[in-house]
């Protein structure tokens, strides 16, 4: 009898364990996103900020919260592979600058937002060493019609990074990659031509 | 009579000329470079040069007519009159949505579209009888997609905007099978389309301006946004997140020196 009880217990633990592990990364990812979003709302919508200050704060949040280099490499697409190291380094820096400028300025238009997480779904691909969570959230820029934002969070141990953001079902990474691809295929068909374009954008 | 025949001939001639112009403006697929070829296939836009011309004209019309109208509607039109106007336009789309939900075998959405239409009838279609539910929008392009038709190359339609071969076929089909168009005059469906364009545009004035300002290639950004939005509309938000998501992971983060070396070694 005791043996059966032990067996049942062992079985329960064995089946429950993976579920508990999956849940813990979802909970942690959810907390990661709401902390980051609240910090962003708090620090970026402060109207007393100068444009420069806001960009600095956004850059810090962006570096902390996002897999910046991973995203940069993804949106560079197939041209990353052939590029020499010097170009890669320059591209990564320019990519970050352009994203920071664009999005920090966007935040300046918002004020008094509310943010709420709706759900968290496990989307870890098979045979992946890291966990992936999809965090569905609502961002209320105006009280009546919120924007639906889906965060794709990759995690491993204590390390959490956002790898993509979908606004109303539209992936920012995919959009950026398609646009970059078009720019590159029209000009030099290498990373250098994209670098020129990004530098022009940053300095404009 | 004679006059109309010669008019018709002229029209045909003009159409043939436009078509020839469009075809000769086809992008020539890059040869030799495998990467360039892959990028060309991925863009799926063989009519790109012609599309870009039409897009430039559309943007001009937008800036001159649609955007000012949308801004006027947003800022000057009385706020308390907006809901009835917008409900009326939405409700007028419901018969078409109902028809297409049926054709897609989606009884749930068919019922929602019908309920929204019929419960609003007593108010002359001015009410939103399901304020907590988003309205159901279905069209022939979506029906063709659920039947397995590929979207085909990207097409920029004059005035109507971004589309694809499949969706263009859908737009033409809807012009003939829309119950509202059959019961009422085509003026009603045209009015609905214009009204819908103004209302939709009035909701994204700032976003469009922002995109125009920040994008490196506005045409390519719109093409990508349109395709993704269309895919989301077709799946009715039930896409499989794992498969549709880009493959970015923590492995890619950081300027991983080893991997860089591995890649250069592999290409040598």
Assembly state of the chains shown: heterodimer
> What is the average per-residue confidence, as pLDDT of chain A, rounded to a whole number?
85
Largest interface: A-B, 57 and 43 residues
Query: Structural class given helices, strands, pairing of chain B?
Result: mainly alpha
- Output the strand order for the largest sheet of chain B: 1-2
Number of strands of chain B: 2
Pattern of helices and strands of chain B: HHHHHHEEHHHHHHH
Class from secondary-structure proportions of chain A: alpha+beta
Note the gap between the termini of chain B: 73 Å
Uncertain ranges of chain B: 1-8, 240-244, 254-268
Summarize the structure.
Chain A is an alpha+beta fold.
Structure report:
The complex is a heterodimer of chains A (204) and B (268). Chain A is built from seven helices and five strands, in the order αααααβββββαα. Chain A has 204 residues and is an alpha+beta fold. A five-stranded antiparallel beta sheet of chain A has the order 1-2-3-4-5. The longest helix of chain A is centred in the N-terminal third of the chain and has 43 residues, at 2-44. Chain A is globular and about 75 Å long. In chain A, 33% of the residues are buried. The model of chain A has no long low-confidence stretch (mean pLDDT 85). Chain B has 268 residues and is mostly helical. Chain B contains 13 helices and two strands. Chain B has a two-stranded antiparallel sheet with strand order 1-2. In chain B, strand 1 (154-157) and strand 2 form a beta hairpin. In chain B, helix 3 (48-75) crosses helix 9, helix 4 runs antiparallel to helix 5 (107-120) and helix 6 crosses helix 7. The longest helix of chain B has 28 residues, at 48-75. Chain B is globular, with a radius of gyration of 23 Å. Chain B starts with a helix and ends with a helix. The interface between A and B is large, with 57 and 43 residues.
């Amino acid at each position: 009898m005791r043996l059966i009880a032990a067996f049942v217990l062992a079985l329960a633990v064995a089946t429950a364990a993976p579920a508990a592990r999956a849940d813990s990364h979802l909970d942690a990812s959810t907390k990661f996103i709401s902390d980051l979003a609240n910090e962003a709302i708090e620090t970026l919508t402060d109207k007393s900020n100068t444009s420069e200050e806001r960009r600095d704060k956004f850059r810090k949040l962006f570096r902390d919260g996002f897999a910046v280099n991973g995203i940069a490499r993804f949106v560079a697409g197939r041209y990353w592979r052939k590029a020499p190291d010097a170009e890669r380094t320059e591209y990564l820096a320019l990519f970050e600058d352009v994203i920071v400028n664009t999005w920090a300025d966007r935040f300046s238009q918002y004020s008094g937002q509310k943010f709420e997480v709706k759900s968290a779904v496990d989307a870890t691909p098979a045979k992946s060493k890291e966990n992936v969570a999809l965090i569905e959230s609502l961002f209320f820029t105006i009280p009546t019609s919120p924007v639906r934002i889906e965060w794709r969070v990759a995690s491993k141990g204590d390390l959490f990074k956002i790898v993509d953001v979908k606004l109303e079902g539209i992936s920012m990474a995919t959009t950026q990659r398609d646009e970059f691809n078009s720019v590159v295929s029209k000009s030099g068909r290498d990373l250098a031509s994209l670098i020129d374009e990004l530098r022009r954008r940053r300095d404009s | 009579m004679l006059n109309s025949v010669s008019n018709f001939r002229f029209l045909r001639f003009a159409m043939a000329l436009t078509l020839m112009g469009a075809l000769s403006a086809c992008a020539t697929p890059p040869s030799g470079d495998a990467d360039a070829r892959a990028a060309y296939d991925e863009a799926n836009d063989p009519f790109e040069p012609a599309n870009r011309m039409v897009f430039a004209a559309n943007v001009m019309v937008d800036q001159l007519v649609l955007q000012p109208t949308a801004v006027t509607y947003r800022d000057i039109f009385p706020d308390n009159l907006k809901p009835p106007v917008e409900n009326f336009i939405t409700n007028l789309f419901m018969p078409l949505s109902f028809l297409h939900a049926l054709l897609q075998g989606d009884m749930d959405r068919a019922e929602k579209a019908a309920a929204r239409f019929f419960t609003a009838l007593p108010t002359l279609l001015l009410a939103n009888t399901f304020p907590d539910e988003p309205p159901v929008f279905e069209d022939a392009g979506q029906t063709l997609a659920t039947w397995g038709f590929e979207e085909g190359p990207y097409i920029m339609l004059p005035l109507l905007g971004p589309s694809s071969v499949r969706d263009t076929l859908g737009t033409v089909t809807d012009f003939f099978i829309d119950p509202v168009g059959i019961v009422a005059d085509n003026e009603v469906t045209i009015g609905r389309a214009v009204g819908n364009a103004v209302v939709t545009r009035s909701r994204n004035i700032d976003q469009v301006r922002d995109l125009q300002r920040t994008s490196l290639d506005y045409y390519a950004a719109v093409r990508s946004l349109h395709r993704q939005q269309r895919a989301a509309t077709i799946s009715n938000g039930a896409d499989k997140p794992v498969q549709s998501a880009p493959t970015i992971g923590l492995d890619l983060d950081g300027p991983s020196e080893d991997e860089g070396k591995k890649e250069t070694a592999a290409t040598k």
